[in-house]
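Predicting holo structure, beta-D-galactopyranose bound.
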Amino acid sequence: MKKSFVFLLACGMSLSLAAQSITVSEARFSVGDGPSWKDAGFDDSGWRILSFDKDWTEQGISNDNAFAWYRLHVVIPSELKDPLTGNVVLDLGPVDDNEETFLNGVKVGATNGWNVPRRYLAAGKLVKWDKENVIAVRVYNGTGKGGFFAGDACIVKPVLSDCVALSLAQKDGKVEATLSSALKTKGTVEVVQTDVLTETILSTQEQKINLKAGSDATLSWPAGENTRFTVTYKDDNFGESITEIKCLPYILTPPAPATPRYNGPAVFGVRPGSPVIFRLAFSGDKPMKYEVEGLPEGVSVNPDNGVLSGSVAKKGEYPLSLKATNAKGSTTASFTLVVGEDKIALTPPMGWNSWNCWATSVSQEKVTASALAMLNRGLADYGYSYINIDDAWEAPERAADGSIVPNEKFPDMKALGDWLHSNGLRLGIYSSPGDMTCGGYLGTLGHEEQDARTWNEWGIDYLKYDWCGYAKVYAAQNDHSVASYIRPYLKMEEYLRQQPRDIFYSLCQYGMAEVWTWGHAVDANSWRTTGDITDTWASLKEIGFDRQPELYPYAGPGHWNDPDMLVVGKVGWSANLRDSRLTPDEQYTHISLWALLAANMLIGCPIEQIDDFTFNLLCNNEVNAVNQDVLGKQARRYSDEDGIQVWARPLADGTMAVGIFNLNETPVNVDLADALSKAGIHKIAGVRDLWRQQDIEVGSYIIPSHGVRLVKVQKACCRH
Ligand code: GAL
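Done. Tokens:
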């Protein structure tokens, strides 16, 4: 029989036990930090009570770049003692930002990252069964929201995955499954290998396994091409199983031809008199010779590297014919150089940013390595041009004259800018309208004009201006109108636009006050629409699929919605990098969706470490052409049924780009005609699969779990 009753504790928290679990919905709370705050006997009777369903900001606490503690007083009934292991599990849910958890004074776990659930196995010997226990949670908050926010914490009996971990990795041409167990147990490992392109099962194998307490076991299989490994461990004692899936990276796109091929945008805009910095993006064997017909006075092309430089005084649209020649052949492309006020960022920015890989460990050396690889690995031949330094370049003090200076990791910003420009690449920088940045470095507050001038002198072409430290100014004003969100961005706009160069103005304030409705009014070229992305499906799904559907009316040439930087390749937000935790299918989805959304395409991994899979993901000219389409229309979501979403955008050539995404946990067979009809496309003259670069039939296609079919459709009524 299931038990269900309520405990009422001295501190006033109500706890309920139902179906062998306890839920806790509030706790004693204090900002600050103390060595004895973890201990069961610490007197917290003077602390206030906060609930777990709202973060502490929403409960009236402001506590940036600082610690705070929650103390949960809980009677843990012996019914929760797991007969198999004698242990119990603390399932706290996500905590914003970083946390350490103690049970009766002993540390049981710690996790960094605001949206990561916390679930810790606590040894039974730490628990005072049927008596009051104290779970003390020490939280560090960067800026903004902090603490528990997602509802109840739970105390539950362990399940198999709390005691046995199964992880899969690809190593030396093999797929390895490692099982590690906290207890003595035995069971069976089953591995199913599936061809991802056809969804046919290639093989199924089983193996018995015995695990000692605290031991590991590793099994391995040769890694085949285009193969998905589904590994299931069935445990005899628990009678439960855990499954992990590893899909090996698979390349859908055929290699680029050796002959020259133009992969860049069809248009580039510059203000009158501003430096033109543009590299003609042709793939194909090098060396290559470049020629341009129709160049206006003041601009020339370097015939050896295809870099356009100079400036144009006269407003106008200049149609150009671009030509590239190598040993294998020659090709031409039509292009328009647009000169006018208000004419920059006519297509979304493509480039690199240091944050998702290096975070605060960024240095000039690392930036240069990525820039060099952008040239040498050929990403510049696909239109990637911005090299953006994120936070952590700033020295702790300004110079005597008040100007901002880089720290010792950036010996010469101007030299870096000059070198990038001579190669047709552009330099980006980061700051905050507040006194401090998110990473705790110097911000721009009170030095707006001076900083804009300094950046001009260094040759900065992109500014990411991140709210962070400005939260204090905002809070002190006691003015919560939209105008108070606009003010700091308006101020920087004035000084930025006074500079005699074009600086892409990127707002970063996580979408507050519906920035997309007023970003254009501060002449922003893009605005972040959400908080930070991370390399998990949960994050990609939330930011890409849940938060973007309503935003399509606000994007267009010159001003773009920015759902944050790419999490492909090696990421890690530190000096220690790892492969993106997104599966290959999730990565195809990520790039497809960002192309459809006309989003900023800022690569978040070190380019010098890019593998073939990631290169192909980032350098498919037909996919990138959707992102860079000159109409600049962001995709709408036309349908969301049974986990299948259809997003589509019209392109300048009269065709439609359509993404059919499978958000389910299993592959789904999708009828293409049916999916396209959801986007209002009924008469079809032709369909091209953009990842495979192949014309395809209007048939049925299997879309893998979390994967996509990205197509370009020619409607029968609009044949060109
Ligand atoms: C965050 C921002 C990140 C990164 C970081 C630097 O607020 O969203 O993209 O710039 O600050 O400290």
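Residues 355, 390-391, 430, 437-439, 466, 468, 508, 532 surround beta-D-galactopyranose (CB under 6 Å).
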